[in-house]
Design a protein that fits this description.
Elements: H1 6-9, H2 12-18, H3 23-28, H4 30-43, H5 47-51, E1 58-61, H6 67-77, E2 85-88, E3 102-106, H7 113-124, E4 128-132, H8 138-145, E5 149-151, H9 165-178, H10 186-202, H11 213-222, E6 224-230, H12 233-248, E7 255-258, H13 263-268, H14 285-291, E8 313-314, E9 325-326, H15 332-335, E10 341-348, H16 357-375, E11 379-384, H17 390-411, H18 420-428
Parallel strand pairs: 1-2, 1-3, 3-4, 4-5, 6-7, 6-10, 10-11
Antiparallel strand pairs: 8-9
Length: about 425
């Protein structure tokens, strides 16, 4: 089972040494990224989009750490957008894209092959272009030649697309607001920046591990095989972001899903080998005979295999442990270390105001999944968004999972921004 050093998380010098590219600092600058992006977007002439005719459709091209930009735009536009919005990662560009459509291409460096190729093909067909990326990049050049709108990325969070999310997302939200696809007024965007500032203060490195929610979450995740579940569409986008950050930043593979569709698939995992009741039920006669291996049990009486009252011996439990029970017959010398537990990270949206029948049904399903998880011995973790517009509530979840994944990486002794294997892969595919 991975071991996370909680003392390391409270050591500023160690945090700085492990975090070679200042990932924590970049995440803390998210609010500043939003404000800087607002200024750069206005300076780039975003109002030109509003002066044009409303496009027939909007296609968003983004990959890797930038892909959440397309997912967020789809999520926010879906309820009220008068035109369809869809994501695309690479060519081919759909045959119907033409001069009546808008293509949005996002790449921090401006050199990501997928968005760059999509933008170039869209320009060739005469489609409107909105691009976000480095000013001195091929993407910016393609956009300028097509007389589109290009928004630069400024100075904040430029080391990685994972830490520059709000630099990339803000111009797209403002552009979509100008086109009437969704609501992202200046006051609302400032509200996102304020919420991100609040979370950065709450999750700051100098805050002790036992009171810092992001550090607490990192410690809990380290002891599990994590599954991230959103309680609705907004939580589903955040869950995908969490899985990506856990894999790329903390090197922890994680599956994710969204309620209600993922309920049965996730709950089915509670019967698996990573929960207290999974596989062969611990403490039974057959289970004991198998795991005792070469020990001579021929002279043992049946009562040696009998299950004590309550079936399994209890152990002290912590928050979210759900009363998990350890195996009475487990021997660390014969059986080896216990496998990691299944962990369920539930990203919960703020309660609907006023409550509706649909929101009450969704909340009841979420509660049922969590109750089932606790009864199965799954470690349950919850992140609750505070009230506000959808994009503000999404900011709550994204900040929590981004900081937690970074603290988890550092606590495991890893640099959150540098992966030798990713570097090797790049070298081998050049």
């Amino acid at each position: 089972m991975p071991y996370i050093d909680e003392a390391l998380l409270d050591d500023p010098d160690e945090l700085a040494r492990k975090d070679s590219r200042e990932t924590l600092r970049a995440l803390a600058s998210a609010g500043a990224q939003v404000r800087e992006a607002m200024t750069l977007t206005e300076e780039a002439g975003i109002d030109r989009l509003a002066r044009s005719e409303r496009p027939r459709s909007v296609l968003v091209a983004a990959i890797g750490g930038s892909s959440i930009v397309a997912e967020v735009l789809e999520l926010l536009a879906e309820p009220g957008s008068p035109v369809p919005v869809q994501a695309r990662r690479n060519l081919p560009l759909p045959g119907w894209v033409g001069p009546m459509d808008l293509v949005v291409a996002v790449s921090l460096s401006g050199r990501a092959p997928g968005p760059l190729a999509v933008a170039a093909e869209a320009a060739r067909r005469g489609a409107m272009l909105l691009t976000v990326g480095a000013d001195d990049s091929p993407l910016a050049e393609v956009c300028r030649r097509a007389r589109g709108v290009h928004v630069g990325v400024g100075s904040g969070g430029r080391t990685s697309s994972r830490t520059a999310l709000w630099t990339l997302l803000t111009p797209v939200l403002i552009g979509a607001d100008r086109l009437g696809l969704l609501e992202a007024s200046p006051d609302m965007v400032v509200g996102v920046a304020d919420r991100l500032d609040t979370r950065a203060e709450e999750f700051r490195p100098s805050s002790d591990a036992f009171v810092n929610p992001a550090k607490v979450l990192a410690v809990q995740l380290a002891e599990t095989v994590p599954v991230v579940l959103g309680d609705g569409p907004l939580g589903g986008v955040a869950a995908a972001r969490a899985a990506s950050m856990l894999a790329r930043t903390a090197r922890i593979p994680a599956t994710f899903g969204e309620l209600p569709d993922a309920a049965s698939g996730i709950v089915a995992c509670f019967d698996g080998p990573y929960t207290a009741i999974g596989g062969r039920r611990p403490g039974t006669y057959d289970d004991a005979r198998i795991r005792l291996g070469d020990i001579d049990t021929s002279r043992w009486e049946p009562h040696h295999f009998a299950e004590p009252e309550g079936e399994l011996m209890e152990r002290p439990t912590g928050p979210g442990d759900g009363g998990r029970r350890d195996d009475l017959f487990a021997d660390p010398y014969l059986d080896g270390p216990a496998p990691p537990r299944l962990g369920l990270l539930m990203l919960r949206d703020a309660p609907a105001e006023p409550p509706t029948r649909e929101s009450e049904q969704a909340e009841a399903l979420t509660d049922a999944v969590l109750t089932t998880a606790r009864e199965a011995g799954v470690r349950v973790m919850e992140v609750q968004a505070e009230s506000g517009p959808p994009i503000v509530r999404l900011a709550d979840h994204v900040a929590a999972v981004d900081f937690a994944a970074t603290y988890l990486a550092i606590g495991l002794g890893l640099d959150p921004s540098v992966s030798p294997h990713v570097a090797d892969l790049r070298d081998r595919t050049r």
